[in-house]
Amino acid sequence: MNRAERILVFVLRAMGIITGSALFAVFLPTAWMATIHDWLGLGKLPEGRIVEYLARSLSAFYAMLGGLCLFVSRDPRRYAGVITYLAVSGAIFGVLMLGIDLSIAMPLHWTLQEGPYILLFSVAILVLQWKAKKQAALYSRGGRMAQSDRRAGSSQPLSQRWGRRGPSA
Q1: How would DSSP label each residue in 31-88?
Q2: Residue of 7, 10, 19 whose CA lies nearest to 93
Q3: Is the CA virtual torsion 26, 27, 30, 32 positive or negative?
Q4: With contact defined as beta carbons under 8 Å apart, do 121 and 66 qualify?
Q5: Among residues 125, 133, 150, 168, which is most buried (max CB within 10 A)?
């Protein structure tokens, strides 16, 4: 795993842990939700089934997204297509959330922490994924060799010397 992939894994795991922590809110007592709502400067939490349903289902959705980020972080090459989809859709979602927050006059602290955060993480994932592919291509073409190949004293990476069957006699 190259350096960009290791950073990508870290970013995916950080996003997974942060968004996955929304699972806590799914089971939060309604009275606590109301207290937090007021504490955030959003006023009194409206009463009604739809409010509670939306708050809990959105929290469950974020938790599911967090679990997916943790899952794909286990093998970024294998799940590259899913990671790209998550990043592109996340960037679009981040811009949409910023627009929504601004249009309904959410508090500034909320507006700055939601859409921009999602957009920043999404762009970081796309950039890291691009860098990881670029670094992997360098290694596969022999442009840079692994440290174990240099120690072996050969000008070719092990994968080119050994082929599919292993070392030749």
Answers
A1: HHHHHHHHHTT--SPPPSHHHHHHHHHHHHHHHHHHHHHHHHTT-TTTTHHHHHHHHH
A2: 19
A3: negative
A4: no
A5: 125
